[in-house]
Design goal:
The chain has 137 residues and is an alpha/beta fold. It is built from four helices and four strands. Strands 2-1-3-4 form a four-stranded parallel beta sheet, with helices on both faces. Helix 1 links the parallel strand 1 and strand 2. The radius of gyration is 15 Å and the shape is globular.
Length: 137
């Protein structure tokens, strides 16, 4: 009942999110669920997690740019599932937390990459970037 945010993600970003959540002290208010496979979409497991955290805001987090990772695949599937009457708290939708769209898969600059990573973690965990000072992903 204390969880305010449920984060779904896939891949390595899960470990960064777990470490950052601990760094900012949000272990009680942020739940993280790692989606191991995107296709076929695991509707039953997503439903189970969504029902477990009925009052939580639902967020998809990814390291990739918005137009590259799993977001465009999972977003309509999440929203379809969340709109059904079966889901307690039906009517919720999933929001995106990650890098902005880009035509290039990488910045080519380590400093810029680290700043983008901190931005993503800040948006995902709903904390100011200053809360992530000293954090190394």
């Amino acid at each position: 009942s204390r969880v305010q945010r449920l984060i779904f993600c896939s891949g390595k970003v899960y470990y960064d999110l777990v470490a950052a959540r601990k760094h900012v002290g949000k272990e009680d208010s942020v739940a993280i669920a790692r989606v191991e496979q995107l296709s076929p979409f695991p509707y039953d497991q997503v439903l189970e997690e969504s029902v477990k955290f009925q009052r939580a805001e639902i967020v998809w987090a990814q390291e990739e740019h918005k137009n590259m990772g799993g977001w465009t695949f999972v977003q309509p599937r999440f929203n379809s599932l969340l709109a059904t009457a079966q889901v307690a708290g039906a009517g919720r939708s999933i929001s995106y937390a990650g890098r902005l769209p880009s035509s290039s898969p990488a910045t080519g600059n380590k400093y810029t990459h680290l700043q983008e990573q901190k931005d993503m973690l800040s948006k995902t965990l709903d904390v100011p970037k200053s809360a992530l000072e000293g954090f190394k992903a």
